[in-house]
Amino acid sequence: MSLTLVVRRLAAGLVVLWIVSVMTFLMVRLIPGDPARTVAGEQATPELVEAVRAQLGLDQPLLTQYLRWLGGVLQGDLGMSLTSPRPVAQTILQAAPATLSITLVALVLAVVLGVTAGVVAGLRQGTWIDRVVSTLATLGIAMPGFWVAMLLISIFAMKLHLLPATGYAPFSEDPARWLQHVLLPGAALALATAAQIARQARGSVADVLAEPYVRTARARGASGSVLVRRHVLRNASIPVITVIGLQAGHLLGGVIIVETVAGMSGIGTLALRAVLDRDYTMIQGYVLFAAVVMVGINLVVDLAYQWVNPKVRAA
Amino acid sequence: MSTSKTAGAATATAVAPDVRPILSVRDLTIDYLGEPRQPALVQDVSFDVLPGRSVALIGESGCGKTITSLAVLGLLPARMRVAGGSIVLDGVDVLQASERTLRDLRGRTVGAIFQEPMSSLNPTMPVGDQIGEARWLHLGESRRAARAKAVELLDRVGIPNAARRARAYPHELSGGMQQRVMIASAIACEPAMLLADEPTTALDVTVQADILALLADLQRDLGLGILFVTHDLGVVAEFCADVVVMYAGHVVERAGTRALFAAPRHPYTAALLGAVPQAGQARTVLTTIPGRVPPSGAFPAGCRFRPRCAHAVATCAEPQHGGADGDHFTLCDRVAAGELTPRRRT
Ligand SMILES: Nc1ncnc2c1ncn2[C@@H]1O[C@H](COP(=O)(O)OP(=O)(O)O)[C@@H](O)[C@H]1O
Ligand SMILES: [Mg+2]
């Protein structure tokens, strides 16, 4: 894979981020409700509201506001929260590790479990193991993540006392405790995604097994693990990677509820409160943060996709 | 279910009896157990392939040519079962052989090339690796040695810049090049026999000639016995010593090429030959015989060509046994009894 390709993808990602920045900026300006009034409080006099507006720069032309705002964003300054005296960037960075930990653990679990189950089922179509996998996959897709989280917590934390029920411990302080805290919410979040990945992996493996090139490989004597490793898996992984990319976005949405159930104060909790409080700068910060994470994930998925698929590599 | 019985021992090949066939198929019968069921999807198919010679397997689409060749490799699709007969490949009974033995035969004793070179090559693997694979699988060569050999083989099948092309992916090559790659991969271990299932059907006419010339050349060099599945009667005439004509899973006629072209004995063969387009048109069969091959699951009893045959009578619904005139076998009882002498249409 060429370096220019990575650079090109990176540039495309930056363009997306720029568009998101414009949209988040405008969103806050165009949304019903007056940020200046929110900050000043319900009982504020019109003079006070105007003073706050001037202080926030909201009386400036839109372009000036945007450029000033973007300049701050690029230096890591997302402004102050409108409802509490805290900088948005710092608040988000404090909340991010818990959320990202659950998401990452969920992603790893989902990929490992989903791919393994799906590939085994695809290679053994029509056997009991195939039926077990597809039944579990249907279940996994049908069960809401928050409910799974409650279930797992009540079994493994409340009843068996194997893992803590709530809270979070930073990885840097105690990796073992970190894992104990993120395992249950991570697993709960992973389930539906693992099920989707398993379905796709099973289907892809089944499709690839029916491809003429697999027959060719068999006809030259390839079989067993040589056949699977060299001819089946790589080709079957192409659509699976696409699904993983899409699912990563779902994880980021699903984590909001799961972290709440698990009693962690992460990004999701933050975003929820910001929306309820009309804390526009905080919402902006959250949207930008989510966009950066998504663009990053897409970049990785894109590069993985091109790495396995030589047809896209050339383009 | 009909149980026609071909003269199993009679083969079309008239050569010295001490030349042992590399492939010997006898009374091969294959059932399809899927939906709709078709018992005897392929029935009583017999033929021999001798070293250094080519046998053509012809017939319209859906006549069982591919299934027959896959059976030789022990690679029948799902729900296809061999119900009877034998396949002996280089002295090994394919139908009794263990999966291990079959694996050792595939790619080592018999190479295979298929109709669609693009879909028959792994899109995510450089072609050189695909060609070299049989070398390390069968000959215990290192991957590195196999890769070097792949370059040699690419050169051998007429691909310029072989060292660079070995690193190319299939989609980076033209159809003709892809088929050359398939050929290189099939002959990588210098097999005694080649299965070529419509190797030129998907290619441009000009490229077809090149591929055929290459196959002829390799056959001479390696003494390959070739089972040549084809629609192209021109290829049969030029390339193959013997012809096996299949219709809906039956061998309806089997003869030396010259004898068959001079005097086809089965009404289906006569119709096929009559249907050869004139020079200048694509030399493919089909289109001009009225009606079509019945789908699997709906094969009629007795002579399966009966619904399309201009000479069909009531007795054609009985199982056909046919008969041989020397090496020239036909499945049609009326022809064997001398009631009927099909003429090539002109
Ligand atoms: N994988 C398969 N499953 C079920 N039926 C098949 C399969 N492949 C071929 N057939 C059927 O078997 C018959 C013979 O097919 P095939 O050997 O491919 O014909 P040909 O190669 O002569 O065109 C056809 O009726 C075809 O529909
Ligand atoms: Mg075919």
Automatic annotation (TrEMBL), chain A:
Domain ABC transmembrane type-1: 96-305
Membrane topology (UniProt): Multi-pass membrane protein
Keyword terms, alphabetized: Cell membrane, Membrane, Transmembrane, Transmembrane helix, Transport
Localisation: Cell membrane
SUPFAM superfamilies (UniProt xref): MetI-like (SSF161098)
GO cellular component: plasma membrane
Keyword Transmembrane helix attributed: yes
Family statement drawn from the similarity comment of this UniProt entry: Belongs to the binding-protein-dependent transport system permease family.
Protein name: Peptide/nickel transport system permease protein
Species for this entry: Pseudonocardia thermophila
TrEMBL record, chain B:
Membrane topology qualifier: Peripheral membrane protein
Keyword field contains Methyltransferase: no
SUPFAM superfamilies membership: P-loop containing nucleoside triphosphate hydrolases
Keywords: ATP-binding, Cell membrane, Membrane, Nucleotide-binding, Transport
SMART domains to which the protein is assigned, alphabetical: AAA
Ranges for domain ABC transporter: 25-273
Family to which the UniProt record says this protein belongs: Belongs to the ABC transporter superfamily.
Compartment list: Cell membrane
Keyword flag Cell membrane: yes
UniProt source species: Pseudonocardia thermophila
GO BP terms in the entry: peptide transport
GO molecular function: ATP binding; ATP hydrolysis activity
Official protein name in the record: Oligopeptide/dipeptide ABC transporter, ATP-binding protein, C-terminal domain-containing protein
UniProt-listed CDD domains: ABC_NikE_OppD_transporters
GO CC annotations on file: plasma membrane
